[in-house]
Every structure is written in structure tokens, then in C-alpha cells.
């Protein structure tokens, strides 16, 4: 959610991550901030949604359909946990305002204005792209005047929240963003928890072309009940059960914190630009619990199990020095890049206690006393990686552009498990990327690109024999080509073909989560953004993908060709309409269609296709002289029922119809 929390939750507990992480793991920046901070005075052109909470509108601020997050709302085909069927968070393809960041913990929206998914043509010219796409976070900024934003209301299933954020220009060169909030979050099955979030961003421009930024972000979460994962006894889905009713053990819960802090320096001197970022990311689980329903029958009878742990910690330090020089030669603009990156990750994981707590029913709450537990020793997981990179880009006015990059990486991973000899693996490949675009035709850009990467694979799910351990980094590759066509001033179409390949992880016959073959995702992606009439914004997208697994296990019939949980077809449509006769009111509509997905690794079972419809409205008004917005949403309007499949073949149902209401005001 970011990474460690999202990986644990997505693979072990639930496909939908917890609220703080969801805003990020799902985080798609309304505005990329790589080139800001080049003037001594405050940038008066900063988008208002980076300052005023009442101005946030993810549909009107999205530049494409591939994934955008503004505030706590996200739209698009992709998010940080799913880019062309893979997780950019698990792969550690994360940036903060363009600089490399190893993400272990969720970002608080007290400091995070939003994020974008850099994929396809949007990644063209981006320094050193990655096969699984890049998630780039934008930090909050201030405008010319002080703004204090207050927001309150209730989220899913009437869970209350209240936040206060301030954007304060302290002097002509010093700015401060600070915020705090408290919120309850309720899961689809009624499991709930409380968390507090707080943080701030300070920016200082001591001289022309120099900007220094520091930030701190933290979530503290308490008594987080966990939704049970259901494993069936055969090739069938669990029986349909009532939602919004918690049937797990409330003592099998989570508590801990997510914390990020760091500093950025950006300097522009003539043709030179220098960016430096140093970051710390920490995720802790002081108390860990997971509920499982094993050997579940068609009538809902099951064996109840819990997995308990404590003192799980994931800590990373990372950073990047990026130096760029641009110069012009006639109609050609050249750009030279040099980058040095590092990351250091230390995980203390494992030591879990597993308990069977007896037979039960998947739709019947049956609390039992918490058993006496004795925990084992923790496993230390250490990762060290350094990357040096050189790049070149050239834009030829009226013709096109090329981008080339080469990276040398050194990767080491060591696992120190109690009672076992240390294990280690290392890799030191040369990676590269190349892309080209032709822009000779007015309004049309044709592009093609290829990328090689060394990407993380996340963690093993908590029901695997190697539960929660960090998986080794893997070599990945991608080919893509497409077109961006600006049909009119407010109409932009992007169409692309892609082919992404990497090793395939799943549970083997001995319940170890390991490489079982190779997986390739080939497909086409489409994005359309338009303003066809006054007041109407349209963001529409589609992914038609052919995910396939290859290798010895497939040839022997132990694995099916369809990888577990991967969706072949996704369609997403978002509309926002501001009424001409009453411009204080706007209504928005969304529909997301997903095709069927394999629910077993042998492909003996599939989860059917489904469509989710959302409806919302905004009413803009003033409280005295204070601009305010009343926001109402109904998610899953038709109350569609469906199942998600987790890594390893467990099931959890999707959330039912729910109503959200919030009031935001900028004082």
C-alpha cells in the first residue's frame, strides 16, 4: 500500500487493502512535480487541488484513463497494485516527485496530493522507466494565500472521519503544509479499525532555482480486525453469504504504524538540473492476526484457523541523485542524464503461531477464547541494491524524439532464519531501455519502446510455508507501441499494444510460494479523455489482455495457462457533468467492467465477469465567505455480488452497496 502492507494484505488477508494504503496503492499525481522549484518565488500556477481540498475532483483532473488519484479518490484502469496485471508497488517502481523511493509504508494524504501511473506514452521521456510501470507521488503545495481545509463526514458503511489540513505560505520563500485526522474504516464483512494520520511538508526556496523540501507522514492503526480468507475443498466457489457481518475472531487483529519521511533538493542552473532525494519508509505490525476458513464445503461448513504474530518490521532507506543537462542545437533539444540510486531494506518477519480453532460455518459468527500463544524467533531479511544509470534523450522539433538509457545494478539479498544456515542470492545485470516517437503529423504521436528491469516480487502469502518472506528480485522485460491522437483541443485518444514478461510465482505442491514458470501479459490498452460539451468531462479506458503462463508445470498439466486472478478484459468509464443551469451542482457516474478470472492454478474454476456502477454528486457553496463542497457517493449502486481470489487460491467477497458523504471547507 505501499509495498509491504499492500503485499501482506493483498496476498494474505485481502485483495482490497486497508484504507490508508488504498488511497495510495491505489494511488494513481494529478500533476507531476519533477520540474517544480526552479524559481525563487512561489509558483502561482500550482494546481488548486494541490492546495484546496474543496477543489479536488479526480475526473476533471485526470489526463488519461490509466490511473489518477487526487486526495482520497482514485479512477482509471490501473493502480499501484495493478499495472498491466502486475504490481508496481511490489516491484518497487515508486517515485516521489520524480526521484527513486523504496516504499514499505502507506503515505498519509496529509502530505500526498495524489499520484499518477506512468505507463505507455505517459512514460515516454521519463528517466529510466520500468517494465511494470511507475507510480509517482506528488506532495502537497501551498498557494499565494493561507488555506485551512476542514473535512468531515462518513465513509464506507457509515464509518466517521474528520481531518484538518493547512497550506501556509510563511514567507516569500518558505511554505508549510501540515495536517492531521482520525478515521474509522469498515471492511466489506464488517471488520473495522480506527487510525490516525498526521504529517507535513515544508518547502524552502533560498535562492533562484533552488527548492529544498522535507516531509513527514505517519499512520497509527489500532485493533484492525481481519476479514477471513476462504479456501474451498474443491473446484467450486464458496456459497453466497451475507455481507457486512464479521464472522472472524476479533482478537486476531492488527496494530502498528506506517511512517515515511525524507528530504528533496532540486536545483536549476542554466542548462543544468540536479535532484537529490533521501527517504526512510517503515511499516510495523506490533500485533498480527489472520483468519482462515480451510477445507470449506459447498454447504459452508469449514475448518477455522488463525495465524498470529507480533513485532513484524519492514524498514527501508533509499534515495537518488539525478543530474540532467539540456542544450539546444538548431531544431534539436538534447538531454543528458546521470543517476545514482540505492536502497537498503531490513525486514524482521515470521515467528508465527498457527492454531486450528475447530469446525464452523463461513457465515456464522462463533467467537472462541484467544488461545495461549508462544511465538517463534523472527527471520531477518536483508536487501542491498545500488544502481548507476546514464541516459540520453533528443527531441527534434516537428519530427519526434528518442530516449535511451542503460543501468548497471548490483543486488544482494540475504535471509537469516532461526535454526537454519543463512541463504543468499545476488544479481548484477546490465539493464536498458529505448523508446522513440514520431510527431511529424500534427496532433498525432506514434511511439514504440522496450525496457528491461530487475524488479521485486513482493512477499509470500501468510498461508504459504515460507509465509511473508520477501521473494527474490526477478528480471523482467517489456515491449510496447502505440499512438496518441489529439482529435480536438479537448479530445485525446491513446491506443497501445504491450507485451510484459516475467517469472511466475505461485504455491507448489509442498505449499511453498516460488517460481513455477513464466508469465506473459500481452494486450491492448485504450484511453479517451474528452470534453464533448460544456461542463461534461469524460474519462474512458479499456484493457484487453491475454495473460498466459508457460513452462514445464503447464506442459505437465499441473498449472493451467491462465495465471491465477488475472483479468483479461477491463473497461472503465467515468463521467462528470456540471449542470449549465445550476453550476454549483455536478453529478458523476462510473462503471467498471472486469472479465472472468482463473480461481485455481489448474484453471478448473473461474470467477464470472462483473460490472460495478458508482454514482455521485458535488454541491459547491459558501459558508459565509468560505468555499465548501458537499460530496455524496453511492458505490456499487446495483449491489453486485462477486468474489475476489487471493494468492494461493483463497476467496473474499467484494463490498456491497455503500453510501459516502463528506463536507469540505477551505478557510
Q: How does this structure look, described?
A:
- The N terminus is likely disordered.
- The chain is mostly beta strands.
- The strands form four sheets. The protein has a 22-stranded antiparallel β-barrel. Strands 2-1-5-6-3-4 form a six-stranded mixed sheet. The chain has a two-stranded antiparallel ribbon with strand order 29-30.
- The longest helix is centred in the N-terminal third of the chain and has 11 residues.
- The two termini are 31 Å apart.
- A hairpin with a 2-residue loop joins strand 3 and strand 4.
Task: Present the secondary structure layout.
Layout: H1 3-13, H2 19-22, H3 58-61, E1 68-70, E2 73-75, E3 94-96, E4 99-100, E5 112-118, E6 134-139, E7 147-154, E8 160-169, E9 174-186, E10 192-204, E11 210-225, E12 229-232, E13 253-269, E14 272-296, E15 301-329, E16 332-349, E17 353-361, E18 379-396, E19 400-416, E20 423-427, E21 430-438, E22 444-455, E23 474-488, E24 491-507, E25 513-530, E26 536-550, H4 552-555, E27 569-578, E28 585-594, E29 597-598, E30 606-607, E31 610-623, E32 626-635, E33 643-645, E34 651-653, E35 658-666
Parallel strand pairs: 3-6, 12-14
Antiparallel strand pairs: 1-2, 1-5, 3-4, 5-6, 7-8, 7-35, 8-9, 9-10, 10-11, 11-13, 13-14, 14-15, 15-16, 15-17, 16-18, 18-19, 19-20, 19-21, 21-22, 22-23, 23-24, 24-25, 25-26, 26-27, 27-28, 28-31, 29-30, 31-32, 32-35, 33-34
Amino acid at each position: 500500500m505501499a509495498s509491504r502492507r499492500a503485499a501482506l494484505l493483498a496476498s494474505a488477508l485481502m485483495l482490497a487493502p486497508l484504507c490508508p494504503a488504498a488511497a495510495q496503492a491505489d494511488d494513481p499525481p494529478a500533476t507531476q512535480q519533477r520540474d517544480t522549484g526552479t524559481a525563487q518565488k512561489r509558483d502561482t500556477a500550482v494546481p488548486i487541488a494541490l492546495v484546496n481540498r474543496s477543489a479536488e475532483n479526480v475526473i476533471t483532473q485526470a489526463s488519461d484513463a490509466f490511473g489518477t488519484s487526487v486526495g482520497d479518490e482514485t479512477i482509471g484502469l490501473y493502480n499501484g497494485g495493478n499495472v498491466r496485471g502486475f504490481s508496481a508497488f511490489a516491484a518497487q517502481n515508486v517515485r516521489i516527485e520524480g526521484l527513486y523511493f523504496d516504499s514499505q509504508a502507506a503515505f498519509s494524504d496529509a502530505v500526498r496530493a495524489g499520484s499518477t501511473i506512468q505507463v505507455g506514452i505517459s512514460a515516454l521521456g521519463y528517466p529510466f522507466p520500468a517494465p511494470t510501470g511507475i507510480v509517482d507521488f506528488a506532495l502537497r503545495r501551498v498557494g499565494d494565500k493561507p488555506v485551512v481545509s476542514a473535512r468531515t463526514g462518513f465513509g464506507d458503511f457509515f464509518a466517521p472521519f474528520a481531518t484538518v489540513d493547512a497550506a501556509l505560505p510563511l514567507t516569500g520563500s518558505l511554505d508549510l503544509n501540515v495536517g492531521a485526522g482520525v478515521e474509522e474504516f469498515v471492511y466489506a464483512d464488517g471488520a473495522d479499525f480506527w487510525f490516525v494520520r498526521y504529517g507535513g511538508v515544508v518547502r524552502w526556496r533560498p535562492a533562484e532555482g533552488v527548492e529544498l523540501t522535507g516531509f513527514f507522514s505517519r499512520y497509527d492503526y489500532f485493533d484492525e480486525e481481519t476479514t477471513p480468507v476462504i479456501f474451498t475443498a474443491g473446484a467450486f466457489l464458496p456459497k453466497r453469504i451475507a455481507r457486512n457481518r464479521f464472522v472472524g475472531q476479533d482478537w486476531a487483529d492488527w496494530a502498528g504504524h506506517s511512517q515515511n519521511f525524507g528530504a528533496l533538493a532540486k536545483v536549476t542552473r542554466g542548462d543544468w538540473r540536479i535532484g537529490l532525494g533521501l527517504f526512510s519508509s517503515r511499516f510495523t505490525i506490533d500485533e498480527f492476526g489472520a483468519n482462515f476458513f480451510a477445507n470449506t464445503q459447498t454447504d459452508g461448513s469449514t475448518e477455522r484457523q488463525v495465524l498470529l504474530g507480533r513485532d513484524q518490521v519492514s524498514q527501508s532507506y533509499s534515495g537518488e541523485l539525478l543530474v540532467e543537462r539540456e542544450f539546444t542545437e538548431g531544431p534539436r533539444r538534447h538531454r543528458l542524464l546521470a543517476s545514482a540510486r540505492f536502497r537498503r531494506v531490513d525486514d524482521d518477519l515470521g515467528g508465527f503461531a498457527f492454531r486450528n480453532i475447530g469446525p464452523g460455518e463461513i457465515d456464522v459468527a462463533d467467537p472462541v477464547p484467544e488461545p495461549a500463544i508462544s511465538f517463534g524467533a523472527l527471520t531477518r531479511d536483508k536487501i542491498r541494491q545500488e544502481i548507476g544509470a546514464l541516459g540520453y534523450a533528443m527531441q527534434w522539433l516537428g519530427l519526434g524524439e528518442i530516449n535511451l538509457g542503460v543501468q548497471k545494478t548490483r543486488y544482494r539479498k540475504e535471509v537469516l532464519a532461526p535454526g537454519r544456515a543463512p541463504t543468499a542470492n545476488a544479481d548484477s545485470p546490465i539493464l536498458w531501455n529505448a523508446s522513440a516517437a514520431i510527431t511529424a503529423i500534427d496532433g498525432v504521436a506514434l511511439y514504440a519502446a522496450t525496457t528491461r528491469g530487475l524488479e521485486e516480487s513482493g512477499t509470500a502469502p501468510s498461508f504459504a510455508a515460507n509465509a511473508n518472506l520477501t521473494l527474490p528480485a526477478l528480471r523482467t522485460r517489456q515491449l510496447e507501441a502505440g499512438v496518441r491522437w489529439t482529435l480536438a483541443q479537448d479530445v485525446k485518444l491513446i491506443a497501445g499494444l504491450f507485451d510484459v514478461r516475467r517469472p511466475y510465482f505461485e504455491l507448489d505442491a509442498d505449499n511453498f510460494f516460488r517460481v513455477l514458470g513464466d508469465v506473459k501479459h500481452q494486450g491492448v490498452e485504450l484511453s479517451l479523455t474528452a470534453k464533448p460539451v460544456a461542463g461534461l468531462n469524460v474519462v474512458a479506458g479499456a484493457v484487453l489482455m491475454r495473460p498466459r503462463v508457460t513452462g514445464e508445470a503447464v506442459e505437465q498439466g499441473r498449472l493451467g495457462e491462465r495465471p491465477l486472478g488475472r483479468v483479461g478484459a477491463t473497461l472503465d468509464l467515468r463521467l462528470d457533468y456540471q449542470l449549465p443551469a445550476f453550476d454549483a451542482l455536478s453529478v458523476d457516474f462510473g462503471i467498471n467492467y472486469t472479465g472472468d478470472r482463473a480461481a485455481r492454478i489448474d484453471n478448473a474454476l473461474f470467477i464470472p465477469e462483473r460490472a460495478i456502477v458508482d454514482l455521485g454528486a458535488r454541491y459547491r457553496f459558501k459558508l459565509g465567505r468560505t468555499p465548501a463542497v458537499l460530496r455524496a457517493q453511492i458505490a456499487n449502486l446495483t449491489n453486485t455480488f462477486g468474489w475476489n481470489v487471493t494468492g494461493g487460491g483463497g476467496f473474499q467477497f467484494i463490498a456491497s452497496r455503500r453510501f459516502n458523504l463528506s463536507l469540505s471547507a477551505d478557510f
